[in-house]
Design brief:
- Helix 12 crosses helix 14.
- The chain has 603 residues and is an alpha+beta fold.
- It contains 14 helices and 32 strands.
- It has five domains: 179 residues, P-loop containing nucleotide triphosphate hydrolases (Rossmann fold, 3-Layer(aba) Sandwich); 85 residues, Beta Barrel (Elongation Factor Tu (Ef-tu), domain 3), CATH 2.40.30; 76 residues, Elongation Factor G (Translational Gtpase), domain 3 (Alpha-Beta Plaits), CATH 3.30.70; 106 residues, Alpha-Beta Plaits, CATH 3.30.70.240; 118 residues, Elongation factor 4, C-terminal domain (Alpha-Beta Plaits, 2-Layer Sandwich), CATH 3.30.70.
- An eight-stranded antiparallel sheet has the order 11-10-16-7-8-15-12-13.
- 27% of the residues lie in helices and 33% in strands.
Length: 603
Amino acid sequence: MSNIDNIRNFAIIAHIDHGKSTIADRIIHNCGGLTEREMKAQVLDSMDIERERGITIKAQTVKLNYKSKDGKDYILNIIDTPGHVDFSYEVSRSLYACEGSILIVDSTQGVEAQTLANVYQALDINHEIVPVLNKVDLPASDLDRTKKQIEEVIGIDTENAIPCSGKTGEGIEDILEQIITILPGPKGESLGDLKCLLIDSWYDTYLGVVILVRVIDGKISKNMKIKMMSTNQEYIVEKVGVFTPKATDINELNAGEIGFITTGIKVLSETKVGDTICDAVKPLKQELPGFKPSKPVVFCGLFPVDSSEYQKLKDGLAKLQLNDASFSFEPESSSALGLGFRCGFLGLLHLEIVTERLEREFDVNLLTTTPGVVYKVHMNNANIIDLHNPSSLPDPTLIKLIEEPWIKATIITPDEYLGSIIKMCQDKRGVQTNLSYSENRAVVNYELPLNEVVFDFNDRLKSMSSGYASFDYEIIEHREGDLVKLGILVNAEPVDALAMMIHKDFAQRTGREVCEKLKDLIPRHNFMIPVQAAIGGKIIARETIKGFKKDVLTKIHGGGATDRKRKLLEKQKKGKARSKQFGRVEIPQEAFIGVLKISKEKQ
């Protein structure tokens, strides 16, 4: 049984690409977690897509044994967290399981937006922080400037900040010594009743649902009967283990330790992240506070390009949801695109990764509709509806007001780009709340509507600042907005897949752009096709696709047969009117994809 004072649980936090996974590799290697032969770069990034993109998506845990310089044995539990804003809920879960954090700052880049967001999360739950300055082997490394930035922007003392290099391994030994001297050990009663926090769960084909837990008090052992407090369900523990980083079976987990259990559960929905696990024989009266469940904020429709792949897409979504409970999906049908699903994601990167995994792992060709956010529609009868899909907006006469989600954004940028960034935020209806400087870098806070940010904000920010600006956001509240539903009609038929919620001021311009784009993309038919953008019953933009003109007069010779000519033209006119009335306009999928790209090309 390990002594609780000799355990250290810590998370590694940083901005994207500042070297979290690489430093985790070095620490694992130093503590002998894996042999030389088993080591590979970013050993904790297990998904192919993580390794290809060089990002961490799922937080991973490792238990290591470390012998300090004074000869004592310690157990280190590391959690390597993601850096990207879409996965910040992964970070918050990981921080709750630890007592301290290693804050990694790239000494060539300095403090960035996610650095701030993650370190504030850690400070909010009273973590001890060990600052580490990574990438000192690079010529652009500037330790003094980075230390000054950490002190000015974050307000942490950097006297003991450790210069290190994840690449060469320099400074890793110092980090390990700092972890055991500065970070506190876990507090907990080894002999008390079992109290356990459910940090994460995922589906394994052989074992069923694997549950990652942090034991607060007591111990959890094989064959023990446990109870999930949120569902009141009881289970028998079949397997107890730790990741070293290989999954290793053990008999029990004691207070202060992090590991995994399996109980034969087959459905992820039975394991709620943040739940409290206790002994079924001696149940607890009070649950642990847990943490807020992740809520999808961006919604879009996913449709198979070939309708015969619908079942394949459905199975793929169900399997992906087993390992990623943070996205939701429900069936949806569209007159233009057929059967598909309305899916909810944590952000655009999350959307991109789920669609890429569907295409890659389940071999489905997908069509994605325009991403949108969740609006709260207040009806005149005092009901409030959550609106995920613009095409299901109720009749405007029944609506009292519509609220949209707003975010608090933190942007850190070199000051020469500040002017153009402020202009972009104002164009997006943003409200500036704060602006401060640290040397030649500005930290600017804005409140912005999420709908304006969700599509191309990050891309534009990166391009206008040559990649130097960084951006982080959190959702604050829903606020009333002057929003309208922009509908698109082709040949007087509404196309539900192209309907969008938009601010009144931008509706006319966007409507015109969509109509112009569709005019180019829909092929000509035998009859004239009007393409219109409408708000309610009012048409605000129109383009016309000309019909093919068949020359019906070629067979008439001579100049005088005007009656015959007139009759033939009348007949043709009637035929066109009839075909316009009954003819179906096939909208090719390229047209949908083209319209979805409008917003990107506009920039």
